[in-house]
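Question thread 4412

I'm putting together a teaching handout and wanted feedback from people who do this every day. The idea is simple: show students a protein as raw sequence, then show them the structure tokens that encode its fold, then repeat with a second protein so they can compare. Below is the first pair exactly as I plan to print it.
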Amino acid sequence: MNGTSHRSETRQPTSLQEILGKMSESGDFQAVILASKDGLPVATEPADYDSEIAAAAVALLRKVSSEAQQQVGLAALDEVTIRSSDHVRLACRYLDVGEQGLILVALVPPGHHYRRATSRAIRQIRQLLA
């Protein structure tokens, strides 16, 4: 491996779109959305993905999960995941950057893992927006 190739692999992404693109590629996700806690899309991968409905569903999930958390007395939520009968998952990871609450959403095909890719993306998003 030459030095140039190694540097490009460790180079930090410079945009949210780049972070989501790398995350989507590494996890082979159908779609990735970064949304505000209110459900407004911030960035999507693919860039032309219609994220309005998904982001609205994510905001609703956040509201319901927050209420459940309070009623049951759980610690702060890290993730909410919905799995369909065909084993596709909608994985929602919560993150705070300063005062801003964000939700990272991945549409995960059956049999695929998402935690490592989403955790890496969360670290990169925090670094980029800090």
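The second pair follows. I'd like the answer to focus on this one:
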Amino acid sequence: MKTILSFFVCFVVMAGLAVPANAGGKPPKELVETLSKKAFDAFITVKNPEGQTIVKPEDAKKLKYPLVPYNEREMAVARGYISGYAKWCGLSWDKDYFLPYLKAMRAEHKKSWTDYQYAYVSMLHGLAMSVSEKGLKGKTCDAAEKEKLAALAKK
């Protein structure tokens, strides 16, 4: 998974896409921590379409931040930014970017993670995606950016 993270973050930085990155080519730790905490706080209170919390009330009291290690949160933020760019460019972010990430994560962790951990990382991905999209508001995706992102989905 570290190789995947390095590849995607480096791609985004090389492509000139505006993922906030530090000298190491990864999202800044402050960003990862801020988004991780916001996602956790929302995660334990968010409701499904039927109006029930996703996290059972008795489980919410037991869940402690962080639910997953830092490197997994960092990956979710990096991938969320890529998905945001893909959506902004009119590409199929869910099928071509998010689902392969989720599949790789499930293959790596198999049954060692709980459903809550997978749901939390998905929520963190979505939050980072939203931040990415907001940062692009009013800008247009040119053909070169679209081509780079489309090529990324095929790797």
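Top answer:
Good format. For the second protein you could add a caption like this: Helices lie at 2-14, 29-43, 57-60, 70-88, 93-109, 115-136, 143-153. Residues 2-153 form one domain.
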